[in-house]
Amino acid sequence: MKKLIALGLLLTSLFTHSQINGEGELGAWYMYFGTNKLAEKWSLHTEAQFRYFETTDNFNQLLLRTGANYHINQDAIATLGYGFIETDGSFLNLPGETNSKEHRIFEQFILKNKVWELLFEHRYRLEQRFLEFANNTTDTQHRARYRLQVTLPLTNTFFLNFYDELFINLQDDLFGQNRLYGALGVHVTENSSVQIGYLRNQFTNAVYDRLQIGIFYNPDLSGLFKKKSKS
């Protein structure tokens, strides 16, 4: 109970300190993440995100991402992946905001460790972004990201999840954005869970409040490939 009260106080604090809001509305991100084991050292990352300027209205962004994970050991994972992102920025009517499509290549390295009951995850990511804008112009950008995530189990079913992620531009202005996140998670089955939380997404001149609902499903598919190889 004390841990749940602490989560509530944290989320209240995050909302209170969102002083500059991008559009004056609570937006929402609806998300799916999957890590599908293919072999002893390999798995497939799958991801889909639907982002809205408001909780159920004014579409902002579609993000589809996949990647091949190589599990060096149980605490270290290297990933090479691709993402497609389609953005509708017309709702804001701000200078520089426009519709765009993006093809993204990324390289990623994850390190995990445990301290007492706390599960730490360090995620390092490099991105090469190939953007196509509505005015028929194109651009190539490069970005580095670092995310520190902490998970605290409450029971066998419930857990708390927090992270802070910093985006660094490798051209122009150094600071890209910072994402601060807190959520309550529920283990639905052995390989699936749901998280409901709040994201404070801070840019140089704006802060966006986002409700996040994430579904995580991680089935082991390695048996399918073993059956095919025997047949």
Automatic annotation (TrEMBL):
Where does the signal peptide begin and end? Answer: 1-18
Sorted keywords for this record are:
Signal
Q: Which InterPro entries match?
A: DUF2490
Q: Name one Pfam family in it.
A: DUF2490
Determine if Signal is one of this entry's keywords: yes
Question: What protein name applies here?
Answer: DUF2490 domain-containing protein
Q: Which organism is it from?
A: Croceivirga radicis
